[in-house]
Amino acid sequence: MKNKANGFRWGLPVLIGLLMHWSTSAKAFALLGPVEPWMQATNGVLWPGDIGGPMELTNEYRWNVPVVTYGFDQSFLDFFGTNGVAAVEGAIQIINDLPPASQMILTNYPFDSQRYNYLAQSESLLDLKSQVLTLLLQQLGLAQPSRCIYVLHQWDPVLADESNILLFDVFEGTNFSNFIFTRNYDPQNLSASPYVNQVLYSGQIYDYGYQHGIAPFSVDPLAGGDNAVANIGIGAGTFYDGLTLDDVGGLRYLLSTNNMNYETLLSDVQGAGTNSFVNGAWRPGVDKIIFVPQPVGSLADTFLPCTNQFMDVYFTNGMAVQQQLQRVTMRPDFLFSAGNDPFSTGTTNWINNAALNNNPGGAGPGIIQPPVRIVFQKIGSYFYSSSLNTYPVTWSEDSVQDLSSDAGWYGNFDSSTNPPIVYPVPQTGKVSMLVRVQLSHSNYGPDFQSFEWSPTSLAGTVYLLQSSTNLSTWNTLFAVTNSGSVCTYRNVNANSLSRFYRLILK
């Protein structure tokens, strides 16, 4: 717990199953911050791709400037083109269109904003705009709420006996606070909540020996789940047409002018003109954040300076004081790219102001600082083979399945009858592709060994991936066309005593 600047002490319950402490309303959000030592993959708190961990209320991280900039590098423009830019800006517009936190009325937002395009689903398309919207919420300080309702802090064998019970009511009157935390908060009364957008969640404790954790699930199997945009899990053919109530509730909490933290300013903030300014001070939330494009230069991947002036509010001796500040950005705060592997800047650069907030040694609160880089994978073709014997099919390492149609291509689509836009955009001239071979001796492939080729050629050039057991006789596994994307070949349960691969021009 920590004292806030206004003198109030905020507390929160942390016990699963103490129903009298659960929120009576059916919604909640979760907060994101730098990973704490107890947050590990072995206790199920961290998953592959996570950029941070779930924060306790009042340990939030947020932006404390009202204007942030965005831009695109040449890799993004080459792969996604102008339609990709429009998709990103469509997601940004949803954030920009939000009213100030002080004017947000949560009931104006739905509990579920997921929509479906069945043609896009049949083509295994992932909506680029929706992917961007989810990642933006992360970089604004929100975690995945359904994963944060029940968080395993510390494993104890006593928990193994509780693997088949409903977590939301089983521990009533029993103190398990050392083992299980709650990290999901109602946006109205800020109490812990087992709900996300009206969906009640329970969780199953699992014990695999090498890993323990809690798997959340919706109590009502017909109620759906993972309906918050911040949850990160949207599938093929699904898209968001806006934010949900819980998403907006989380942003309202972070940006609220009633949420006071001691904060320092970003290093590139200065007084307007030659004016001196107060840096570290008790500050409320900025109320609203606007994304603006970073001006671009005449050369590829060059940007021009962008100056934004804003009125900063801080408190001293219980009185609100205003000061005119300005910030000059030389490059975008948010840079969108395309690459061989997906990437989103983590939370290690976020500034922990716990000590300044009378919370020495705590996990927060703090501020988010740029730069943020979001890289979308250049998804391309996907091939698969296996030496498994599964009745009635006997698989062979030399028998390759083309699963490209199931790979999950990026696209743009909505609820209209317009055909989806599919990426990449048609390539011209010389482009580079990546051909990745992943080999595993197991049936499930956790121990993949990866080998890569990165040929550069005219777009449309066809290559052959071949294999051999003796370096004399070569078998063509498949052909792949250079479209500037990533081609993946997985050989699961590979059992050849020796096998060689090569990539050649057709």
> How many β-strand stretches?
38
Mean pLDDT figure: 88
Number of helices: 6
Number of domains: 2
Class from secondary-structure proportions: mainly beta
Q: How far apart lie the N and C ends?
A: 65 Å
Q: For the report, how would you describe the main beta sheet?
A: 5 strands, mixed
Cα radius of gyration in angstroms: 25 Å
- Estimate percent helicity: 10-25%
Entry keywords:
12% helix, 38 strands, 506 residues, mainly beta, 6 helices, single chain, 2 domains, five-stranded mixed β-sheet
Entry summary:
By secondary structure, the protein is mainly beta. The protein is built from six helices and 38 strands.
What does this structure look like?
The chain has six helices and 38 strands. With 506 residues, the protein is mostly beta strands. It folds into two domains: 358 residues, no CATH class; 126 residues, no CATH class. The strands form 13 sheets. The protein has a five-stranded mixed beta sheet with strand order 17-4-20-24-21, with helices on one face. A hairpin with a 2-residue loop joins strand 18 and strand 19. Helix 1 packs across helix 3.
Give the secondary structure arrangement, pairings included:
Layout: E1 30-33, E2 53-55, E3 61-62, E4 67-72, H1 74-96, E5 114-116, H2 118-122, E6 125-127, H3 128-139, E7 142-143, H4 145-148, E8 151-152, H5 167-170, E9 180-181, E10 195-196, E11 199-207, E12 212-218, E13 238-240, H6 245-255, E14 261-263, E15 269-271, E16 281-283, E17 290-293, E18 306-316, E19 319-329, E20 334-339, E21 343-344, E22 351-352, E23 366-367, E24 372-377, E25 379-386, E26 389-390, E27 393-394, E28 401-402, E29 409-412, E30 421-422, E31 430-432, E32 434-439, E33 449-453, E34 456-458, E35 462-468, E36 475-481, E37 486-492, E38 500-505
Helix pairs in contact: 1-3
